[in-house]
Write a structure and sequence with these properties.
Length: about 210
């Protein structure tokens, strides 16, 4: 495309190929990205083509519509139009079918890409076998141990814990009551009293009385 041509031949070929009406804006949008035509150049080229009679121009209000000169095309009878309509319908059905097939294949491809490869699966199986082997050895070790705690011994421990926790709570409550009585006549704060008496609370030692 020469500078002198300014895109006129390209626009003429485009309009003849598409054989449908376009505005200058339509042609600019359709050809600008691929061919880098400027809007002003497109408008001037189309006006020149219309002036030379190479394309036709129609004005609707303030908008101009351009289309190919129909005299250059052969007449098409009704039978030919029906045949073309039938072909268009068949091709449209084929396009729809192929589009659906492509979508299905894309979905299958995404699933395959997100799945593990055969090598990865074999490696994972081997890792799981090693892990299971470790668990089996650990289980056998536990089963063969001779120092199991009997249900009676466990129950005894639970009962002793209950007694000790109960006593702990009782003594803590008694100490709290005594301290509150002392603090009623003590001129300083509770913290200062605990510091002077050298008392460490459960909270100071970061321990909590068990619930049971």
């Amino acid at each position: 495309m020469s500078k002198k041509d300014n895109g006129a031949s390209l626009i003429l070929s485009y309009l003849n190929e598409k054989n449908r009406p376009y505005s200058a804006q339509d042609v600019f949008c359709n050809l600008q990205k691929q061919h880098g035509l400027g809007k002003t150049a497109v408008v001037k080229a189309m006006e020149l083509l219309a002036l030379e009679g190479k394309i036709k121009e129609k004005t609707y209000g303030k908008q101009k519509i351009y289309f190919a000169d129909q005299a250059q095309f052969k007449d098409v009878n009704d039978a030919d139009l029906k045949a073309m309509d039938s072909q268009i319908s068949e091709l449209s059905a084929d396009v729809q079918s192929l589009t659906q097939t492509c979508r299905q294949l894309d979905t299958e491809l995404k699933e395959l890409n997100s799945s593990l490869t055969t090598e990865e699966i074999q490696s994972e199986i081997q890792e799981l076998k090693v892990e299971c082997s470790g668990y089996r050895a650990r289980l056998e070790k536990i089963k063969s141990a001779t120092n199991h705690v009997t249900p009676e011994e466990r129950e005894k421990v639970y009962k002793e814990q209950t007694v000790y926790v109960k006593e702990w709570k009782k003594r803590k409550r008694m100490a709290s009551d005594m301290m509150n009585q002392i603090l009623e006549g003590y001129p300083k704060s509770k913290k200062e009293f605990l510091d002077e008496a050298g008392v460490e609370t459960d909270e100071d030692c970061k321990v909590v009385v068990p619930s049971a």
